[in-house]
Amino acid sequence: MVTIGTVALQLSGLIRVVFFNRSSGLKTFALSMFAPALAVAVSLTPAAHAQTLGGGSGPAGDAAQVEKCDAPKGTLAVVEPQYAVLQSLSGYGLQSPSAVIRLIIQQSNCFQIVERGAAMQNMAQERALAAGGELQGGQNVGKGQMVAADFLLTPNIVFSNPDAGGVGGGIGGLLGGMGGRLGAIGALAGGVRFKEAQTAMTMADTRSGIQVAAAQGSASQTDFNVGAALFGRYGGGGLGGYSSTAEGKMIAASFLDNWNNIVRTIRNNPSLIQAKAGPASQANAAASVKAGSSAGNAGDVYVAKIAGVKVYRQPAEGGELGSLGRTDEVVFEGDEQNGFMKIAGPGGSGWVKTIMMRKLQ
User: Fold this and answer.
1) Mean of pLDDT values over 136-147
2) Model-level pTM?
3) Strands (E), 114-255
4) Could you say which of 59, 71, 187, 246 has the lowest number of CB atoms within 10 Å?
């Protein structure tokens, strides 16, 4: 027998809920079909005190749980999740997690956040007002003021074992309407609609597009304070947001774990900038067919469009090696720079202006 205030529940086969009423004595009713789920809900109540995101105040509210950097490593913009992810979140009454992620990043002191979300429209609006002469003089709002994002952070979410209904959900709706502590039990009985949230974050250099960091995070039903569900009158149906719902707190906990893993990876790196690809990539590019060559392919035969086309030592005017007649055939070596193509003929190799040459069919 487990006693919760003035409510007694017998956790076997048939559950009998007993109401203590001073004026009319005891009143009981049975809920046999809900016995297993409700028993689990009641058993969870006293033990729901695991990790919280800022205690009971909301996700990432406790900055002590966020891994820190000594100083910002640059500016960063958070990319909005893809439509499919946002659509899945909406099924749990949740909006974009960008605000939660930005809050966590801000508390870590690893990056300065630049606005690339909904407020960008308002920034553009202010600039449009300034350009139209609608603002007061001396407001100093205009072009050339915005700071570039050095890095882009792309988040993703994966839900494990989703279950939006079932017996638990039925109990949440039935008992929730009774209010008080039974309503609280109903919220727990309805439970979390997925067992685990997994997240991934990738961070890329904005200028080069090269990925500089990647990490995963996860959180399960024991990684947030289930006690946050113990209020409200309708079995948790009215709760929403990352600071109030069980699902929201689980996702926020996963992002917190995720970002902490990113910070551990980058914290001791003096510079995250990846200005260009490594030696292997540069060697691959050099060994590949030249992109965008207007001259054609290596080995193609060319002739001059007019007589007297000059041949140069370098892909630039100056340092003449000789000239070509209209009937002189040369072979394109595959290299093209600055509007010049490298050719080989009986007298050796040199550079000619591409526009002055015609490929033989």
Assistant:
1) 94
2) 0.58
3) 151-160, 196-205, 211-220
4) 71
